[in-house]
Amino acid sequence: MTSKTDTAETRRECLNQAEQSVNRILLGKTDKVRLAFCCLLSRGHLLIEDAPGVGKTTLAHALARVIGSDYQRIQFTSDMLPADILGVSIYKRDKDAFVLHPGPIFSQVILADEINRATPKTQSALLEGMAEGQVTIDNETHILPRPFFVMATQNPLDLVGTYPLPDSQLDRFLLSITLGYPNRTAERELLTSMDRAEMLQQLKSRLTPQDVLGLQEDCAQVHVSESLLDYIQALLAESRNEQWFESGLSPRAGLALLRASRAYAFLDRRDFVTPEDVKAVFPGLARHRLCAAAGFNQMPDKQIAEMLQQLPIP
């Protein structure tokens, strides 16, 4: 009989293979792929903001395939309705009752593509599912499958036809990343190697949804010392300093930072969290939650980097 320890080690090894598989598809973005897996293992959701054509959809599709999950891509448009996401109840005469026809939200991995092209009313259809793992349709609550992971792509807000996501929606995303353009070496390999669509079709699953649930439990057991908690609290307190930002990080963001730091340490094959783990995930956790103080550029990336550099580690 396989012991619990052996099962955990097997899951960890399969997780490493899954990460390597995605890195072979999305070239030169190992740090971004690591953050995507970190978000999944933290029971969070991922927001990717970047220009079209840099690999956002490819990352979502590859991640879904390597974890062997159900996958749905929702293309958000300005005329989309909440029912297009949640589903609709249709009257069945033979049953003399309304029967729910589930929408694409009833999947384990969802790519919400160009989410900020939809109206705020349609965007809000994802809120309950992302926060509570359930949706309410016609006053009836429906539990969503587990694991439930939303990866949303967002076009830069200066593009035509975009609607800024409200703070309540942004807070549902644990991490936010940008992929950016590939470096010269990665781009040359991209130009000369097999088409990415063909590679995705050949990509094998390395994990099962049940494995992902087990890995999420494993991450929750990663040790966090008292001094590390002091550092996290210091970061939260410093973010509330009006010198840097208009308003600081909430306690819920602090809990998300703790979960993400544990997952990042786990991905690095450690059973304890270090300050470097916190520093690695903090920019992705903070950049979509914070607004730079007056006198700074609108995007807070520079302020986040300076704050991390100046704040001493306890």
Described by its quaternary structure, the protein is single chain
Q: How many beta strands in the DSSP annotation?
A: 9
CATH architecture of the largest domain: 3-Layer(aba) Sandwich
User: What about the largest sheet?
Assistant: 5 strands, parallel
Backbone structural class: alpha/beta
How would you describe this protein?
The chain is α/β, with parallel strands linked by helices and 314 residues long. The protein has two domains: 4-219, P-loop containing nucleotide triphosphate hydrolases (Rossmann fold), CATH 3.40.50.300; 222-314, Helicase, Ruva Protein, domain 3. The protein is built from 14 helices and nine strands. The strands form three sheets. Strands 2-5-8-1-9 form a five-stranded parallel β-sheet. It has a two-stranded antiparallel sheet with strand order 3-4. A hairpin with a 4-residue loop joins strand 3 (87-92) and strand 4 (97-102). Helix 2 crosses helix 12, helix 11 crosses helix 12 and helix 12 packs across helix 13 (275-286). Residues 1-5 have low confidence and may be disordered.
Fold topology:
Layout: H1 4-25, H2 30-41, E1 46-49, H3 56-66, E2 71-75, H4 83-86, E3 87-92, E4 97-102, E5 109-113, H5 120-123, H6 127-132, E6 134-137, E7 140-143, E8 149-154, H7 167-170, E9 175-177, H8 184-192, H9 196-202, H10 209-220, H11 226-239, H12 251-267, H13 275-286, H14 301-310
Parallel strand pairs: 1-8, 1-9, 2-5, 5-8
Antiparallel strand pairs: 3-4, 6-7
Helix pairs in contact: 1-3, 1-10, 2-12, 10-12, 11-12, 12-13, 13-14
